[in-house]
Amino acid sequence: MRTTLLATVVVAVLNVNSVFAASDIELLKQQLGVLKSNYEQRIVALEKRLEQAENKAVQASDKVQVVENKMVQQEKKVASFSTKSNFNPDISLILDGRFASFDNEADDYELPGFALGGEAGLGEEGFSLGHTELVMSATIDNLFFGKATIVLDDHDGEIELELEEAYIQTLGLGHGVTVKAGRFASNLGYLNEQHEHAWDFADAPLIYRGLFGNRLYDDGVQISYVAPTDLFIEVGAEAFRGSRFPAGGEQADVGAWTAYANVGGDIGIEHSWQMGVGHWRADDIEDRTSGGHSHGGGADEIPSFAGDSHINAFDVVYKWAPNGNPKNRNFKFQFEYFEREEDGVVALLNSAPLEETSYDGDQSGWYAQGVYQFKPQWRMGVRYDELDSSNSGSDFDVLGEAGLDNEGHTPKRFSAMLEWVPSEFSRIRLQYNHDESYEDTGDQLFIQYTHSLGSHGAHAF
Amino acid sequence: MLISLVKRSVIALGIGLLSLPAYSEVRVFACEPEWASLTQALGGEHVSIYTATSNEQNPHYIQARPSLIAKARRADLLVCTGAELEIGWLPLLIRKSGNPAIQVGQKGHFLATDTMTLLGKPAVLDRSLGDIHAAGNPHVHLDPERLLTVAERVTQTLVSIDVANSEDYQRNLAVFSEEWKEKMVAWRSLASPLRGQSIVVHHDNWLYLQQWLGLNKLAALEPKPGVPPTSSHLSGLVSQVKQTDVYGIVYANYQDKKAADWLSDKTGVATLALDFSPASGERLVQWYERLINQLVQLNH
């Protein structure tokens, strides 16, 4: 019964459909068309909404970033100001090694007219280590900075430990004043304050070798003042113990002191310069021993000076960098002149009877050098040294044995070097010297590496 | 009568002592031109600014010249990037200046990257990876968002140094921020075609710009940060660049253009030299707009 009824209804509907078929197709077509355009509109609308959503997402991510930044700022408000590693001192280790070849025996080296002391000399031939330096520095607190440099040096197979620097320095004392105390390199001259690893040549200028035994450093205090002017003007003074070469003797109070002044500035953006004058004096030197003239006289006879000594210094440095940007190319010229006057007595220790002479010393010397970084990582440079001396005394033979007779010779040296500097932490250098330090002219060749491990602080101008 | 006069003078004196001295001018030592430009906008007439570097100098490699020490000696406020960008020269200037105002930890010692998360913080610290910054990429001035927060902090610092003019500083900040935010919207739509594009850079110093504009860094011309481009590294880049659709080779004006030109020659990809910082006297807004315009118009 139920099936019959359903069948009837279906048939009826089908009949009705077939009756209206023709006009209905048209209608359907129209409706489809309407639907189609509807959907197209909707798709466009949807696309628009999608785009808007995307934009909002981008904006939202930006906002999230801003919020994140702000959150981090909140967290970090109390964070340390320092960018240096947390409380640890900056530690660096300088590795320096070389291969050296000399025409003449290194032991025969002398500078006629100059009594050599300190580290003066050619160093070792063949493979050897130079200065291995361990440097530690840090701000101690808000008022002080401290630094120590320990040098390990190999002398005839024995490792010598030397404390080259150990000082504290005030930070922002005010009015441009800075005080330094401890052991430090004197501000006399330009090169003296720089560590050997920062030098542009493998060896010291002859005048540094002749007067200071490479470098002048001592225990004492330094006070310096920078003037509140656009032109850099710095004046300072140092008081030293005065027991080290080129001073000497047990000093109860100040044994040596210096005064210096530096001025400097820029010319345009590509050129900068600095000029300095300085004076060093020690008025009560006792028993300043030095290496004597190796031939003549007993090997045990050691020259010893007592008296006063004054040094005047002048230096000028000029640097050029295209557009003030030294990274790829730059040039540096430096010139230094020193003169020393000494008055006293020179004795030859271990001579019997004691050989002695009055001594009136007059020594001077200068060097000029230019270094050009012609492309990134490559530098080349030339240097010329010249010394002069005129010493007099009551016994010229004794002066001669003390190395203070200039033998009618003007010490000179010409040097040229080429450096490969892969990064600010490493350097390999080839250097050639044509050396006329004494009458036996000789050539010298150095191949040297100077690398630094660990943090490496800023270098002075 | 006398007592009241004394009272009055004491009060007057007290007020005189309490009211902070108004600086005639806050002397600012800005390490880079972007901070000079920003501090000028925020400090207005109350600041006089010395800019230690120009946009033709690489701020990583500046020497501690005597002239810079002389300027640091007289500065009331130091505005620098930090994050080891100036590590080769700034610590020395501060130490030699004998100037208490700009010492580390003082309010006159302002580093933009302090109290800010930095991108590109290396996971491994080893010098064999080149000249990397332990704290992260320091060049935050290329990120407009971060620049806004730096602006707020510079204003706080100016206010703390020179309270008397704090209203002016706050007003300057409002003006600056409003314009900057408007510009950010404009720049974002202007730079929308750049989103997703790949670029080759000379050195990894565009990180914040890439991130903000949605640019991909395909490669750097330097084999390692701070190491000059080598021919072997550049030849390796040629095929990589040819396989990818690269939008441009971007370098800063102070960088050597030889490597970029060489790669451009081999691959046909255009080079673009950008000023890494504003020019002298240029406003930050002008400079940043210039960067984006140059980028957008590169291949048109």
Written description of the protein model:
The complex is a heterodimer of chains A (about 450) and B (about 300). By secondary structure, chain A is of the alpha+beta class. Chain A has two domains: about 1-90; about 95-455, Beta Barrel (Porin), CATH 2.40.160. Chain A has helices spanning about 1-75, 205-210, 395-400; strands at about 90-100, 125-130, 130-140, 145-155, 160-170, 175-185, 215-225, 230-240, 255-265, 270-290, 300-320, 330-350, 355-375, 380-390, 410-425, 425-435, 440-455. Chain A has a 16-stranded antiparallel β-barrel. In chain A, strand 16 and strand 17 (about 440-455) form a beta hairpin. Chain A is elongated, with a radius of gyration of 39 Å. Chain A starts with a helix and ends in a 7-residue tail after the last strand. Helix content of chain B is about 45%, strand content about 10%. Mean pLDDT of chain B is about 90; it is low at about 15-20. The N and C termini of chain B lie far apart (about 85 Å). Chain B folds into two domains: about 25-185, Rossmann fold; about 190-295, Rossmann fold, CATH 3.40.50. By secondary structure, chain B is an alpha/beta fold. The relative contact order of chain B is 0.12. In chain B, the strands form two sheets. In chain B, strands 2-1-3-4 form a four-stranded parallel sheet, with helices on one face. Chain B has a four-stranded parallel sheet with strand order 6-5-7-8, sandwiched between helices. Chain B has ten helices and eight strands. Chain B has helices at about 1-20, 35-45, 65-75, 90-95, 145-160, 165-190, 205-215, 230-245, 260-265, 285-295; strands at about 25-30, 45-50, 75-80, 110, 200, 215-220, 245-250, 270-275. In chain B, helix 2 packs across helix 5, helix 3 (about 65-75) packs across helix 4 (about 90-95) and helix 8 (about 230-245) crosses helix 9 (about 260-265). The interface between A and B is large, with 67 and 59 residues.
